[in-house]
Design brief:
single chain, about 120 residues, alpha+beta, 5-stranded mixed beta sheet, 5 strands, about 35% helix
């Protein structure tokens, strides 16, 4: 490749990639999320709290508000003696969210180690 064409190729690649990224700004976007909670430390059979995949339209900076709601619900519902995590996983596409949701459920599929409890986050 000639020296003069390399910067042009890099510029085209950069513009192409930037065009595929949704800018993070103050405009509202649609996100898909689910929540999961497990024991902070392994201690026998764990109770796993989780939600279905939800859709929300908001500014990305508002996602922590949902995270706080989930943390409050987990704090009230935690059944693990070592305490519980409160994780909110969010994605820009429904397909990504559902794929990760199924992967997470698969991780906790062993009924001898985990009790799964579906909870609703309003």
């Amino acid at each position: 490749m000639k020296k003069a064409t390399l910067p042009v190729v890099c510029l085209i690649l950069a513009v192409t990639l930037l065009g595929q990224i949704n800018p993070v700004n103050n405009s509202e976007n649609t996100f898909y999320y689910f929540c999961v909670s497990h024991a902070k430390y392994s201690s026998g059979k764990q109770v796993i709290l989780y939600t279905k995949v939800y859709q929300i339209t908001c500014e990305e900076k508002n996602i922590p508000e949902k995270t706080k709601e989930w943390a409050t619900l987990v704090e009230k519902s935690c059944e693990n003696p070592t305490g519980c995590t409160s994780d909110l996983n969010y994605y820009r596409s429904k397909e990504d969210a559902e794929k990760q949701f199924e992967s997470t459920k698969h991780l906790y599929r062993d009924a001898g180690k985990y009790t799964l409890k579906l909870v609703e986050l309003k």
